[in-house]
Amino acid sequence: MIESEEGVPNVLNLSEIAEREREEDERVVEIVREFGAENLIYCMQCGSCAAVCPLARVGFEWYNKKLIKALLLGMKEELLDDPTPWACVACNRCTEVCPRQVSPFEVMFAVRRMMVEEFAIPTLAIEGLRALYEYGHAVYMTGREARKKVGLPEKPPSTDSDEQALKDLKTILKNTKLAKLGLIPMND
Amino acid sequence: MMEAEVVEKDAEKKLKFGLFLGCNIPFNRPDVEQAMRKIFPVLGVELDELKGQSCCPTWGTMPSIDITAWCAVAARNLCLGEEKGIDLMTACNSCYGSLNEARHKMLNNPKLMSDVNELLAKIGKRYEGKAKCRHVAWVLYKDVGLEKIKESIKYTLDDITIAVQPGCHFLWPSEVYPDKEEDPFNPVVLRELCEALGAEAPYYTRLIDCCGMGALRSTDPEKSFTLVKEKLENIKEEIDADLIVTTCSSCLIQLDDAQERLRKEGKLNFSIPVLHYVQLLALCMGFEPEQVAGICVTPRDEIINRIIKG
Amino acid sequence: MSNDEKPRIGVYICHCGENIAGAVDVKAVAEFAKTLPDVVVVRDYLFMCSDPGQELIKQDIRDGLVNRVVVAACTPRTHEPIFRKACEDAGLNKYYFEMANIRDQCSWAHWHEKEKATEKAKAIVAAAVAKARLLEPLEDRYIELTKEVMVIGGGIAGIFAALDLANAGFKVHLVEKSPSIGGNMAKLDKTFPTNDCSACILTPLMVEVANHPNINLLTYSEVESVEGSVGNFKVKVRKKQTYVDWDKCTGCGACLDVCPPKARVPDEFNEGMSLRGAIYIPFPQAVPKKAVVDMDACIKCGGRDFSGKEPRLSKSGKPILAPCEKVCPTGAADRTPYRDPNGELVELNVGAIIVATGYKVMDKHHFKEFAPEHPNVITAMQMERLISATGPSEGKLIKPSEIPKLLEAKKKGEKVEVEKPHTITFISCVGSRDNRYHTYCSRVCCMYMLKQAMILKEKYPDLDIYIFFIDVRTPGKDFDEYYMRCRQLGIKIIKGRAGGIQPLPDDRLLVKGYDAEIGKPVEVVTDIAVLATAIEPNPTLKELARTLGINVGAEGFLKERHTKLYPVDTMTEGIFIAGCAQGPKDIPDSVAQAKAAAASAMSLLDPGKMTVEPLISEVNKEKCTGCGICVPLCPYGAISLVECEDGKKKSEINPALCKGCGVCTAACPSKAITLHGFTYDQVLAQIKTIARWPEIPAE
Fold first, then answer.
1. Cβ within 8 Å, pair A165-B212
2. Cβ–Cβ gap B212/A89 under 8 Å
3. Tens digits of per-residue pLDDT, C499-548?
4. Which end of chain C is more exposed for a tag (fewer CB within 10 A), N or C?
């Protein structure tokens, strides 16, 4: 989140942002488009997405409309520490109402993908990835009491109880970007 | 005559779906899983175990890392149905959303589809884009039908007012889903399903608003609870519901669990029990409450007693 | 229809839906009207102006029931012609019709006082009946129309109006105050929304105007006076002194370069970004391509001042000539013959006038907050010149502060390194939507900013371009698509008008803005700041309007007769308006309006004569004492004193000029002037009825 540091004015210096883009020789807009938000450039900042966004409603700073504007201006570093994209519930109500088919949800997730490359990823997300790799389930609970209580076998008929299936899943994951990023141990 | 015969044959055609569980349902709310396993045989729907299934993958995992990886994990799950010539069926909106968004992306991007199949080839699989994931509510509404549901139940919900919570991924983005509400901003499927059980399921202002679950809750619980509180208060004020019924496992957890937390913090002074629709249907069919609706934070005993004892 | 019949009046009361009936008890008014003297028929109807409503009136006339008609309804301004026509169609002299306005002046005004409104409606109807009893039959008259039109202003609107009329066979006099036609459009580089080159589409039209046999092109000329009225305007046009013999001038341009530095002044065509000599041709594609001498700038080299003196001789006996006349290959610039500084007065007779004097771009110096003195703060019109191939840098994008260096090097034939901009920032609504300057939206700024940004970005993709705006307004065909293309090109569009520009120690500028979308102040270091300054009426427009007798609105633009229904007409019949003189607009709208004005002038003049209401004043020579009071009072110059047979002078009114305003009638001490349709007796009968209300005077 951008918060003015002590003694530093709360002003965005657009020229510095543009200069940085030039130095790094890549436009933020293009990076985000690569990551799946192809229609970002069609945004006209009408605000319909923000009108229905749960994040905007509860006071996250870089909700869909504002995030898109920041990207269009070439902002990136300023956003890396911000939790907003990781709070997106992917509800897609924004996508449904967007008059220019930008799909603000895709922008949120493209920013997540951009942040991941910079290792700006929340611990909880790492844990989810680890669980997905280890068990095939992002939400994984070892306590089997509840299943037994309702009369179900201890393990569901999933990767949790199917070694070959888990191996298959791991094979896939090992050949994706997840492995290249090295975010979680994938040695087995 | 000819036409009538065809119709009859179709009606007799056995419905079969791969039961896609996801994560929250088997590990967090297995009573929902049990409810599904109970109700569908009664309704003449065969369930396939979909052995070897995994996480859909959910939003915070592969979708946040890479689109090809997301689609590959989703496609492996969809293959499990496609191999048997059946569609998947889920009671979790997140799975419904993630699997269908992934499928939609693959169908509209041949390059992506071939990249995914390259990955699948490593485990001897291939996804053609045929199998899709259906939502349990749509299967009940469209494939099974309201009449059959009415015939199947032992108890009706007279004088019970239900606040419905279809959940976001039941509705949006409508473009990607195999079944669509005629007006996604005024959804009627879940309301009609509840009404089929004899309950009132009126409209309320915040019906389609997000419950605040998922990444929002894990990122900032306080902010998440402000959303769910707003929703609960609206339900209380406008329709004074006896029960909240959802078709999403995430909404179920949030509305049930956050409600109790809000009460403990003194931010909420009422209590409304919450059920997944498959649980409610299982109860109406007369299944053992302990098994099909035994896990909750906000107490359900009173409403279950009302249902069972009339 | 004879007028000695006793009046049999029919009164027809309109409900106007709820407009009248909502406040006035129509039935009560009808009952009352039956009691009025000479009234024989009273009817009411939902919409009297509808076909069945009119038919009620016609039938009563045809049946011989009535021979005078009073309609109590809305306003004569819109509906009198309809009802007069109904009377005429049924065989009654149409001036046996009288209208009582019980809507605009009664029901609408007293909507919440129904009883009083009903009472007032009765009084209005009674007064109309009192007048109707005294109506006299009148006959329409006709005036001959001159089938020639004067178009004032040679910009794109004037050009189109002139061409359409000329092509239809009308003689057109196109009056332009500067030495060339073309107007502001000639200065533009490209035009939205298709980005076609302005000169490429304009120049052929300018040439067509110059070569058209039906167009008399009067450039470097201004309208001095206008007399007369629709169909017959007498216009005096001042052709300014060019100090160059245009019959000889070939437009070769040899004189332009030799004019000495001391005589050089900012070039209007380049918006002051370069200098021109005192002798100049406005721009390369000028039509006519002729030189003029700007006497305010001329330093009269060698004492050569057009006073008729032969040149002095040098020691070697050669005549001392000014450089311009020395180089002129045809002798057009000869400074020996006397040339009248007042130029020449031309008189024109025209049937209609189209005013298309265009606009002026607001000056940047008003805006102290935007560092207007800084050479790299420019107006959008200056940006047009900067990117135009005929501009000061010949279309090369450089910092405006580098122009003098570039021009100096060019003069010396040297090559020079000049700085190019990396960042350009546009600021919208400068002087528009601003209570300190102009409250209106200038309508074209959003689009021309986008256009310039798009042209620049497409040509120089590495440029960073920012546009600060309040609202982007793109309500035209293909306009929003144009805007979206700009966004997709990566032009950074920021909601929030910039609040200030601070010059930096080098020649760059710090633009201080606010991004309302992000909710933070923002700053941009920019090489050029472009101010989208407002479109203003030409400074001389008010004076011209006074000369023509037409109105200007609060913002200084010409006022149309009716915003929606008569958008190119003025309150003075026969005078039409088009283009930015009427209000800010873009080229497509200016052309559309010009064509509309031309068509209006055509439909007015084509029949060759026009019907004029006989509601004009007439002098009773018996009563007139020849005092002459009325003569100077007449605003139309219609009255003169003429000698009668008995040798006495008496007033006479020219019926072609009289507009029936009634000033003379009211002023005449001998009551010798009658205004037909509003005679003393008629008007007094109305007044008496109202004054003695509720008593009804018998006679």
1. no
2. yes
3. 999 999 999 999 999 999 999 999 999 999 999 999 999 999 999 999 99
4. C
Complex prediction ipTM:
0.95
Report the top-level CATH class of C360-536: alpha beta
Report yes or no: A51 and A27 within 8 Å, Cβ to Cβ: no
**How close A11 comes to chain B (CA, Å)?**
27
Q: Write out chain C residues lying below 8 Å of A61, CB-based.
A: none
Chain position carrying tokens 């006349």 = C325
Cis peptide before A122 (omega within 30 of 0): no
The shortest C-alpha distance from B10 to chain A (Å) reads 30
Name the minimum distance, in Å, from the CA of B83 to any CA of chain A. 14
Q: Residue B151: inside a domain, yes or no?
A: yes
What distance in Å separates residue A136's CA from the closest CA in chain C?
40
Nearest to A12 among C464, C488, C520 (CB): C520
* Touch A-B: 3+ C-beta pairs under 8 A: yes
Residue A104: pLDDT over 70: yes
Give the SS3 label for residue B284.
helix
In this structure, chain A runs to a length of 188
Judge contact between A72 and A51, C-beta under 8 A.
Answer: no
Best mutation target among B34, B47, B55, B226 (most A Cβ atoms within 10 Å) is B55
Q: Which of A121, A158, A172 sits opposite B21 (nearest CB)?
A: A158
Q: Residues C88-140: pLDDT tens digits? A: 999 999 999 999 999 999 999 999 999 999 999 999 999 999 999 999 999 99
A182 at the B interface (CB within 8 A)? no
DSSP assignments along C239-291, one per residue:
E---SS-TTT-----HHHHHS-GGG-EE-TTTTTSSEE-SEE-S-TT-BS---
Chain B contacts of A171, Cβ < 8 Å?
122-123
Burial C354-378 (b: 16+ CB within 10 A, else e): bbbbbbbbbebebbeebbbebebbb
Residue with tokens 């002129």: C328
CATH at B113: 1.20.1050.140
How are the residues of chain B apportioned to helix, strand and coil, as percentages rounded to the nearest 5?
55, 10, 35
For residue B108, is it within any domain? yes
Residue contact A15–C487, C-beta within 8 A: no
Q: How far is A46 from chain B (nearest CA, A)?
A: 19
Given C423, C492, C525, which is nearest A73 (Cβ)? C492
Burial of C563 (0-12, 13-18, 19+ CB in 10 A): exposed
Interface list for A 1-30 with B (CB within 8 A): none
Instruction: Report pLDDT digits (tens) over C534-589.
Output: 999 999 999 999 999 999 999 999 999 999 999 999 999 999 999 999 999 999 99
pLDDT tens-digit series, residues A73-103: 999 999 999 999 999 999 999 999 999 999 9
- Checking if the pLDDT of B9 tops 70, the result is no
C499, burial (CB in 10 Å: exposed 0-12, middle 13-18, buried 19+)? middle
